[in-house]
From TrEMBL, chain A:
<feature type="region of interest" description="Disordered">
    <location>
        <begin position="94"/>
        <end position="153"/>
    </location>
</feature>
<comment type="similarity">
    <text>Belongs to the eukaryotic ribosomal protein eL24 family.</text>
</comment>
<dbReference type="GO" id="GO:0003735">
    <property type="term" value="F:structural constituent of ribosome"/>
</dbReference>
<protein>
    <recommendedName>
        <fullName>Large ribosomal subunit protein eL24-related N-terminal domain-containing protein</fullName>
    </recommendedName>
</protein>
<dbReference type="GO" id="GO:0002181">
    <property type="term" value="P:cytoplasmic translation"/>
</dbReference>
<dbReference type="InterPro" id="IPR000988">
    <property type="entry name" value="Ribosomal_eL24-rel_N"/>
</dbReference>
<dbReference type="Pfam" id="PF01246">
    <property type="entry name" value="Ribosomal_L24e"/>
</dbReference>
<feature type="compositionally biased region" description="Basic and acidic residues">
    <location>
        <begin position="94"/>
        <end position="128"/>
    </location>
</feature>
<keyword id="KW-0689">Ribosomal protein</keyword>
From TrEMBL, chain B:
<dbReference type="GO" id="GO:0005762">
    <property type="term" value="C:mitochondrial large ribosomal subunit"/>
</dbReference>
<comment type="function">
    <text>Component of the mitochondrial ribosome (mitoribosome), a dedicated translation machinery responsible for the synthesis of mitochondrial genome-encoded proteins, including at least some of the essential transmembrane subunits of the mitochondrial respiratory chain. The mitoribosomes are attached to the mitochondrial inner membrane and translation products are cotranslationally integrated into the membrane.</text>
</comment>
<dbReference type="InterPro" id="IPR000218">
    <property type="entry name" value="Ribosomal_uL14"/>
</dbReference>
<dbReference type="InterPro" id="IPR005745">
    <property type="entry name" value="Ribosomal_uL14_bac-type"/>
</dbReference>
<dbReference type="InterPro" id="IPR019972">
    <property type="entry name" value="Ribosomal_uL14_CS"/>
</dbReference>
<keyword id="KW-0689">Ribosomal protein</keyword>
<keyword id="KW-0687">Ribonucleoprotein</keyword>
<dbReference type="Pfam" id="PF00238">
    <property type="entry name" value="Ribosomal_L14"/>
</dbReference>
<dbReference type="GO" id="GO:0070180">
    <property type="term" value="F:large ribosomal subunit rRNA binding"/>
</dbReference>
Length: 153, 127
């Protein structure tokens, strides 16, 4: 069985160390004669710098691990963007899928209708002005450049 | 002056001195039988004599005893060493039965290995 040293807090593997049972039936496990001797001198493990008890009390080693873990997390802030306000962003985010798809369907419908209207309009215009929509190339629009006649020989 | 042991049963004796080790060795360990002379005993009053067992332990009695705790460490099979804070024994009669009816305090687990079943069963705690 793996014990823990009552003085230093180190692990005691089987066949190591000693066990002392005091008159009041309290059991103490010692890793080696060093810890046993210190115990018998009635030293306080909280004042002996290499014991686990001391290190815990003075927060040695453990706090570094904890600090590392904490800094990894990025804090998320809810910020508004210049174009839209925070409420608008939130509203968009919290839109239900049905609402969104319904809105999309409507928009699609609208667009289609508009296109239809515009197409109808164009047709009507074409019927009125057959030339209005003729396509000219850029060169034609500019006009032919005048020939440069020689003025001197 | 020989080794003195605390008697931790309710037989009436308090301190016993070892006068003989009942095995072919120089010293006895936990779970060994010894012969003791009672050095200090609890005063026996006539009132309590009826409730107690027949054996009345007086100072100077020579009895047998079983060692249950030693200050000298004992080796366990797993390699550990166990040491108690004092030397203690339990008085026995010549048939190796404990004289007292109760045991106060710890006893060592070596007793179990050495087949002192009755004593182990009386003990409140075995370590």
């Amino acid at each position: 069985r793996l014990e823990i040293c009552s003085f230093s807090g180190y692990k005691i593997y089987p066949s190591r160390g000693r066990t002392f049972i005091r008159g009041d039936s309290r059991t103490f496990h010692f890793l080696n004669s060093k810890t046993e001797s210190l115990f018998r001198q009635a030293k306080n493990p909280r004042k002996i710098a290499w014991t686990v008890v001391f290190r815990k009390m003075h927060r040695k080693g453990i706090s570094e691990e904890v600090a590392k873990k904490r800094t990894r997390r990025a804090v998320k802030y809810n910020r508004a963007i210049v174009g839209t306000s925070w409420e608008a962003i939130n509203a968009r985010r919290n839109e239900k899928t049905e609402v969104r798809s319904a809105a999309r369907a409507e928009a699609v419908k609208k667009a289609k209708e508009q296109r239809k209207n515009e197409a109808a309009k164009r047709k009507a215009e074409r019927a009125k002005n057959p030339t209005a929509d003729q396509k000219y190339s850029k060169q034609q629009a500019r006009g032919a450049s005048t020939k440069v006649h020689a003025t001197s020989r | 002056m020989k080794s003195r042991l605390n008697v931790i049963d309710n037989s009436g004796a308090i301190v016993a001195e070892c006068i003989k080790v009942l095995k072919n060795a120089k010293w006895a360990e936990v779970g060994d039988e010894i012969v003791v002379s009672v050095k200090k005993a609890r005063p026996i009053s006539d009132k309590t004599s009826g409730s107690m067992s027949a054996a009345k332990i007086r100072k100077g009695d020579v009895r047998r005893a079983l060692i249950v705790r030693t200050k000298k460490e004992v080796r366990r099979p797993d390699g550990r060493y166990v040491r108690f804070d004092d030397n203690a024994c339990v008085l026995l009669n010549n048939q190796q039965q404990p004289l007292g009816s109760r045991i106060l305090g710890l006893v060592s687990a070596e007793l179990r290995f050495k087949n002192w079943v009755k004593v182990v069963s009386l003990a409140p705690r075995v370590v």
